[in-house]
Design brief:
The chain is built from 8 helices and no strands. It is mainly alpha-helical and 150 residues long. The protein has one domain. The longest helix has 20 residues. 20% of the residues are buried.
Length: 150
């Protein structure tokens, strides 16, 4: 491999980490706030934790080698634990083990779905423009629907 190709490979590898790192930064920012707006329904914060950390695990597993997919669960779970600990220093917030369990469960479900469900993985890996084109074709008006009623 030429040095120019190797440099391009390294930079594209770093760029792939942009989404998981941006989401992790957003999570840290949110846990630094004394008040985070929410739905207010009992337990709804657990759903948010499950979804956010599931998304973080999905973004993380996509940049790891296929033989290391379970590392995403471990990394995201550890991040969830440190985020809860960090949150305990924020005025008006507390550390909640149930939140960490929801974080870990979301990461686990996301990684299992990504690793074992080929259709889900293909959907996530498909270029956005092909998904938009498919939606346009499926939702295109048919000839019968374009005829004006008598």
């Amino acid at each position: 491999m030429q040095s120019g190709q190797r440099g391009k490979s390294r930079s594209s590898g770093r760029v792939r980490w942009a989404y998981p790192l941006a989401l992790a930064a957003a999570i840290v920012f949110a846990s630094s706030q004394s008040h985070v707006p929410g739905v207010g329904a009992p337990g709804s914060d657990k759903v948010v934790h499950f979804a956010a950390f599931g998304l973080l695990a999905t973004l993380t597993v996509r940049v790891l080698p296929p033989s290391r997919v379970w590392l995403a669960v471990v990394v995201v779970s550890l991040f969830g634990a440190t985020d809860e600990w960090h949150q305990s220093f924020t005025p008006g917030r507390t550390m909640d083990w149930a939140d960490w369990v929801a974080d870990t469960a979301g990461a686990l479900v996301a990684v299992v779905a990504y690793a074992r469900w080929a259709a889900y993985r293909r959907l996530l890996e498909a270029p956005v423009r092909s998904l938009c084109r498919k939606a346009r074709i499926e939702n295109a008006p048919t000839e019968a629907s374009t005829v004006a009623p008598p």
